[in-house]
Amino acid sequence: MHGPASSGWLLVALCAATGAYCLLRMRSGVEEQRRAAGGEAVMGFGMAAMAVPATAFTPPSWAWPAFAVLFGATGLHALWAARRSVRHLHHLVGAGAMVHMSVAMAASPGGHRPGGAGLPLLTGALLLYFTVYVLATGVRLIPVPAAAGAGPPGPGWGDRPEVARACRLSMGLAMVAMLLMM
Question: Is the pLDDT of residue 9 over 80?
């Protein structure tokens, strides 16, 4: 991705940390959380790899098509999983955005596209989707006051829905930043 190196490295750190936490969430006792965490880990690490500043590393010419194939396969998996849960449709949109960015980077000379953003209509639609997603996810993170001492102890650290939402929020923010830097 082009843009300031410091913001690129911050995106790399954010996405890699999110991917690492998602790997840890794969140890959850809840099957649906394990499945979602696996896809989110792939997205987190893939986004981290794509966000490495171009001044630090210029990927080989085969890298962008490889990313497109990887995220295309991830999108097909999300489409198949959406039969059980519509939540996987978000993973499908995320994988589609990654394919879009990979194709745009592969089509541009040197893997960089200063001033261009692929198909502007598609990029704009993805920006709108992820902006709304980030705002909606952020609102769901606002704590609801609970009665003191109410309820049994919470789930294990890997099964905490608010931490999973925070990870999804951070990946959504990173996606908006990557689409803007494209």
Answer: yes
Selection from 168, 92, 181, 164 nearest residue 136 by Cα: 168
pLDDT (0 to 100) of residue 3: 58
Secondary structure letter of residue 169 according to DSSP: H
Which residue intervals of 82-119 are DSSP H helices?
Answer: 88-107
Alpha helices (runs of H) in 82-160, residue ranges in sequence order: 88-107, 120-140
Environment class of residue 178 by beta-carbon count within 10 Å: exposed (0-12), middle (13-18) or buried (19+)?
buried
Over residues 55-105, the pLDDT tens digits come to 888 888 899 999 999 999 999 999 998 888 888 899 999 999 999 999 988
Alpha-carbon torsion 107, 130, 114, 52, what sign? negative
Q: Does residue 114 carry a pLDDT above 50?
A: no
Question: pTM of the predicted model, to two decimals?
Answer: 0.82
Alpha helices in the chain (DSSP H): 5-25, 31-51, 63-81, 88-107, 120-140, 161-181
Question: Residue 19, exposed/middle/buried by CB under 10 A (0-12, 13-18, 19+)?
Answer: buried
